[in-house]
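Why run this: before we spend reagent on co-expression, it is cheaper to look at a predicted model of the complex and decide which construct boundaries make sense. The entries below are exactly what would go into the expression plan.
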Amino acid sequence: MAEREYDASSHAPPAEVGEMELVHPRTFIGKYIWSQDAKVIAIQYGLTATAIGLVALVLSILIRLQLGFPNSVSLIDPASYLQHVTMHGMIMVVYLLTAILLGGFGNYLIPLMCGARDMAFPYLNMLSFWTYLLSVLILVAGFFVPGGSSGAGWTLYPPQSISPGTPGVDGGIVLMLVSLAVFIIGFTMGGLNYVVTVLQARTRGMTLMRLPLTVWGIFMATVMALLAFPALLVAALMLLMDLLLGTSFFMPEMLAMGEITEREGGSPLLFQHLFWFFGHPEVYIVALPAFGIVSDLLAVHARKNIFGYRMMVWALIIIGVLSFVVWAHHMFVSGMNPYFGFLFATTTLIIAVPTAIKVYNWVLTLWRGNIRFTVPMLFAIGFLFTFVNGGLSGLFLGNVTADVPLSDTYFVVGHFHMVMAVAPIMVIFGAIYHWYPKMTGRMLNDTLGKIHFWVTFLGTYLIYYPMHFIGLEGVPRRYYAYGETTFISDSVQTLNAGITIAAIIVAATQLLFLFNLAWSYFRGRESGPNPWQATTLEWQTPHTPPRHGNFGDALPVVYRWPYDYGVPGAKDDFIPQNVPPEAVEYLDGAHATGKGAT
Amino acid sequence: MTVTLTFLALLMAGFVAWLFSHSVNVRPWVAGSSETARRTQVPEWVTAPRMGLMVLLATVTSVFTLIISAYLMRMEMGADWHPLPDSALLWFNSALLVLASVALHGAWRAARQDAVERVRHLLIAGGGLSALFVVGQLLVWRQLAVEGYYLATNPANAFYYLLTSLHGLHLLGGLVAWAKVFRRLQRGGEPARLRSGIELCAVYWDFLLLVWVVVFALLLKT
Amino acid sequence: MAMAVALIVLAVGSVLFFLFSPWHLTPLASNWEAIDRTISISFWVTGLVFLAVTLFMALALVRFGYQKQRRSRYEPENKPLEAWLTGLTTLGIAALLAPGLFVWGSFVSVPEDAHEVEVVAQQWHWGFRFPGEDGTLGAARSSLIDAGNPFGIDPDDPHGQDDVLVENPRLLLPVDRPVKLILRSKDVIHNFKVAPFRAKMDVVPGQTSYFWLTPTQTGEFEAVCAELCGIAHFAMRAKVAVVEQPSFDAWLAEQPTYAELESLEPADPDAGAERFSACVACHGPQGEGQQAINAPRLAGLDRDYFTRQLHLFQSGARGTHEADRFGQQMRPFATSLSDQAIRDIAAYVETLPVTPTRDTIIGDAERGARLYRTCASCHGAQGAGMAAFKAPRLAGMNDWYLVRQLRHFRDGIRGRHPQDGYGNQMVDMAQILIDDRALADVTAYIGTLAQQTAASNVDATRTEE
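The model came back. Tokens follow.
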């Protein structure tokens, strides 16, 4: 299928496709450890992110134990509680979600979906993973230094984060900041690859508007990350200087442990501006790849073209661009000039429009489709539901007035877990069930997959939906215990216990998923090259799993967009991207010249 | 944040305009159309290394504009800002960096003419001048420290050390790339790849010169 | 099908949960009903969208499940539909945003007639300052803070002299009068939040921030910290009582001004020594304590803590709980003392030597060390106490007394009284000592700290010789 004649008259020669020099390693170490193959690097990224994600999952259970059953576990004191909260947040946002979506799926899917042999700079790509691994190890080292990891909250607000008395100020915070800097350097190496590969190494006929939305999502997220992560880097470097070298970028005239410090003039708000200048785009750095992937999952499993492809692409671009001018909505009650509230509330609510359009288009993709309720499809629908819920609660928090009583309460915790934790995780699970057959040649077990889905979907909803309401009552976040606070009703404690039990069940179910991954690798049903009957190029490779170089002798040539499902008159209900118009079989036996032009 | 936002606005405007020109009036669901394929591929002169460098420079620019934004905000916020004195050495260092950039451009031109000896001499000159620049910057640090302008005494000092050390680190990174190109030259590498390497170095040096000019102007003005 | 049912159940269930859950906004106690209104508008709009989208999705799942013969409809775009949806969404968003922005407009403009109160935050308690008769708060800086000037007021600023200082974490506000709360932090970022008031704002060191409100309900409310500020963040509370204007005026008149505090006669340890003779019978000649009659050691206590406790005994905030038998014995002695007498005795007690105590409690000091990590954030790594945190010395105190008091705190026998703000905090913190073994362990560890201190004292005397 892939070897089609290259027709010089109808296609301009692409810039560098096919001339790429690939390193062909022979040893095991060269193939699987120091590999320059994007697919191996993707799996390395995925495994590392999963491992560190499991650590964060355990931390979240410890947090929940304390909240659900206060002071029943003597292991958790106020300091370690905050340390767990901090590490859980930081790991999940940066080291799990960002790494697995961009480093994992980006590496696996970009070259395959664009029809490239590999990333543009394979050596740099390899360095990217090893730098990422180094950053993870530095972060983990924070658990073992005296004083433990930082307990400043993942937002690391100074002065608290670097003041004496804060847990981890003796070493944990340094390791965390250094680890972030290393992560950003590693990510930049990978990010260069993703951007250049998408722009440069697309195969013949793969025009921008024929790219699968997965690639669009990862591409836009990478562009944003390359511009936003520097803000975190700058903030981390300046914070390190404040901590280690005694500068006063962020440190005002203040006391520490009751003693007057040498600092003066610095501004804690400056840090917050830098942090959220990264932090808000970061939300979309995680969300956009998920948006892209879920679009493809929905199209494939509903056997229908994605509705409003051009609108979807432009919504991604607009969200990406706008996300750089909304950061201060995290700071409505931060003590900044309150007049900024007008501006940032407006920009924030404007960004809801393209996001809503995406939701409509996903739902309209289901409408009049031919929906297969496969495990990836279940997760995709789970994403839609969760994302709609989380997105709508965002309208409360983005609207500056409603944010005042709700900020720093469990409403916020519920909101961002719904929209930024559960929703992307649903997509990640769906994507793993979807592409696992391509990665291994075997299907994941369906029954285990369905159990995994239902427990995760219902369980997480039970965990996070009620949190909004205790937040409405005013229950503050990042509290070790609630003591006798008068405005908090006693029933909150009962609810917290319930949430904790749900959390433990959901967490335990993830072990089932890991078991499924391992078991199916050896015992899973053989999948064949294209089990889902999908159109995109990764399913058209001559080998499954694809070998080094992806496409055998000749690169595929692309003749159509990736959403030719249910094409009227065609014999099959899907036409792969590399099938030329003249090769399409029609029901009446006649060749049509084109179709669907409006 | 105005500086950063202006930079991002310009960058995004270009990027979005480019995307727009490649997607407007495209009907993606129409199969096999040859014109769409021709129009949307990148022009041939945009090679992967060139594009990679551009993306890298955009990222690095983001780093520097953010620090400059922070610089301007911090300057406004505290009443404790005392600018550093100008040093004659800084002018001398700037001249070194200009010359290094000129030398690398010379090397690039020579490489296009396949004048291997001239390439070698100009490369050595470019690298040497850059190394001298780094040494010169270290001397300015020493000079400042001797005069009592320590890192922690004042935010202006802290920003000065932060900006110059980041600039210096980027230059050192450039010197690593320079060393790789030079080694390739010594081993008689393929001329096309050599040309590409020298070109990237020259562009990167131009960029660092530009950053230095902006940083230097900022330090002089405030 | 299962998925469609699940979606319908979840959507309807969510709405029912919203309607019938016991958790809602606390009853409003300020003028900000507009904030509540914005929240309910948001609930209605988002709730409708949520139901519409979810139910439409469920319908799609029911109607378009997989059938082998059927084809999905090939429809790349539908421009009019997309335009309609975009337009409607934009309208909906505007409808949400516009009222919000109007309310924000009034949130940022403080009424002319608002009176000012400064809220001063530090790890982990609150203080308050009123501008006094001249109506202007004096200049204040963190670098001027010391034991005698806890608010860091600039002594050269005439506006500061008449500023009324409230060090106790209890604030009174007059009902129905707009108040502008000016927020200042001594150390890290905090957030002053009273849930029924709705309005809140971060308290940022190095600058001031503000917000305003009009309390509309009398009663006592709880202020909490809503921005992570360290390990006792969860225990950083204050009381805000909204009262009628006359009671407010009376209360304010009782509070000392900065000038009054400055001109207070210094405490006299010699006078204190004389008065101390009344304490000797139980607490011993050197204030070393007597276990036999359950009188704890006094030597080693700082004057701030000592004075505060005697005042608490006087007011009945301590020593009135029926389970606190020995506290009840202390009360009559405390009530017999004048303010000046208490200050003098406190000054004398500071001069008493700290001699080693005898261990009476057996515990695992190693386990205790881990527990003590939490205590150390206020009482210091060496247990010497830290005035800034209002935390008394622990090292060198009688271990039997520590165990009893910790148990009292944990069980709410001591520290529950609304006037005992720091005791409230200790009640929260003592919860980490989940059983008697933990109590014994942490006390045993504090015992080792005392020995270290004693040993180093001995070393110090030796070197002097």
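The longest strand of chain C covers residues 115-122. The CA atoms of residues 66 and 279 of chain C lie 89 Å apart. Bring this page to Monday's planning discussion.
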